[in-house]
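Sample intake sheet
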Amino acid sequence: MSVELSVNLNAVAMLRNRRDLPWPSVTGLGRIALQAGAHGLTVHPRPDERHIRFSDLPAIRALIDEEFPEAEFNIEGYPSIEFLALVSAARPEQVTLVPDDPAQPTSDHGWDFEHQSGFLRPIVERLRGEGARVSLFADPDAAQMPAASATGCDRVEFYTGPYGATHSDPAAAKAEIDRLGAAADAALDLGLGINAGHDLTVANLPALVARIPALAEVSIGHGLTADALEYGMAETVRRFRRACGQLV
């Protein structure tokens, strides 16, 4: 099974928002990413709209529907009333629920499934009823996977920030890969699909893919956008696709 690449556009939007100008274009760079073979586009609209704006959602939806109907739209966020209304209007193929506080600069931990599965279960049911695949942001903890499965979600997205932080420490990287692999094995045994995201790079993706060959999707924003400044968006997408094992 091929590991799909979803390009997170938040960093592009944050750069745009530094000026009251329409560039860099979120949809323009999203188009380039999809033309280069990305499977989908990801956004995380936060309440203060500090990067993705609510007005970006219908434009991205239209881009996919009109030009790339096989691509997927993935919307991440905390399931507030306001967020769920945005999701209902945007009709994403996938919704990734995260336990973020609105003030957090970025997602940095998964759900506490043991204590929050009751809160999540009706939200997951609602979103699936609207036609979305539901993924829940998760720490790579094998012991929590039964409670994650009990929410009725389709997938978990493993938080790979600690793995990304081991970029200069091979022994620590192996330990994190082992932890991610054990959690993935537990999730797969329960019938859950596996996504991953946070601080993934061209350098560290191959080891992750090798350990979790059933990995369905990686969502990458910061590292991919940083590389795009050097290589351009199209070539960067191709480089990440090679790291995912899609291209030779």
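Comment: The beta strands are 4-8, 40-43, 72-77, 94-97, 133-138, 155-159, 193-197, 217-220. The domain at 4-243 is CATH 3.20.20.70 (TIM Barrel).
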